[in-house]
């Protein structure tokens, strides 16, 4: 990996981690967008997976660990894999669908974790539905943040490709 690419990668992870530590509305974070973007754009599959998970872990070192972390991290890893499926298909509608799908995937899996790992809801279908219903007011923030940050990430990548063509070594198709 070239030195500038390494620096860009490290800065992106740190910015995403910092964004979780700064005051923000609940669930308004760039990490789902970063997971989708890294899956779609980073050539190295390990880096694509490491980027959002490292951002989550760095922030969690400060925020604290919790019983649903496995579900949250698995959801992020699956969003990275969803980004992989995008390939070069990065039109506005495709990205909007992938962004909504990534946010929905994160919502569904992370809230299964809340339902399963915490004693807040009965461990039956009624309890799971109640958990989803209680989390629904926060879902729109995840979707808006994913669209906003995803638009910035994919938009900047598209502009760089259009006007420069010589993106860093970590970025590109396979």
Task: Please explain how this structure is put together.
By secondary structure, the protein is mainly α. The chain has helices spanning 3-21, 31-41, 45-63, 69-86, 92-117, 125-163. It has one domain (30-163). α4 runs antiparallel to α5. The radius of gyration is 16 Å and the shape is globular. The relative contact order is 0.17.
Please render the helix and strand layout as text.
Layout: H1 3-21, H2 31-41, H3 45-63, H4 69-86, H5 92-117, H6 125-163
Helix pairs in contact: 1-3, 2-3, 2-4, 2-6, 3-4, 4-5, 5-6
Task: Write a compact overview of the structure shown.
With 174 residues, this protein is mainly α. Helix content is 76%, strand content 0%. It has one domain.
- Compute the number of helices: 6
Overall number of domains: 1
Radius of gyration using CA atoms only = 16 Å
Following the backbone from N to C, one meets helices and strands in this order, namely HHHHHH
Query: Which spans of ≥5 residues are poorly predicted at pLDDT below 50?
Result: none
Mean pLDDT: 87
Shape: globular
Tally the beta strands: 0
**Share in β-strands:** under 5%
Structural class: mainly alpha
Give the helix level as a range of percent. over 70%
Largest sheet: none
Distance between the termini: 15 Å
């Amino acid at each position: 990996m070239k030195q500038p690419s390494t620096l860009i990668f490290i800065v992106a992870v740190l910015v995403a981690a910092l964004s979780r530590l700064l005051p923000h509305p609940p669930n308004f974070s760039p990490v789902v967008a970063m997971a989708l973007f890294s899956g779609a754009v980073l050539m190295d599959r390990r880096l694509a997976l490491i980027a959002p998970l490292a951002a989550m872990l760095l922030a969690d070192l400060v925020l604290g660990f919790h019983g649903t972390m496995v579900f949250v991290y698995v959801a992020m890893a699956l969003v990275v894999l969803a980004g992989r499926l995008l390939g070069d298909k990065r039109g506005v509608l495709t990205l909007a669908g992938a962004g909504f799908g990534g946010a929905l995937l994160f919502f569904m899996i992370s809230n299964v974790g809340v339902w399963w790992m915490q004693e807040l809801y009965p461990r039956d279908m009624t309890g799971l539905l109640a958990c989803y219903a209680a989390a629904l007011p926060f879902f729109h923030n995840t979707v808006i943040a994913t669209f906003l940050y995803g638009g910035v990430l994919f938009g900047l990548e598209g502009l760089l490709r259009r006007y420069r063509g010589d993106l860093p070594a970590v970025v590109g198709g396979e």
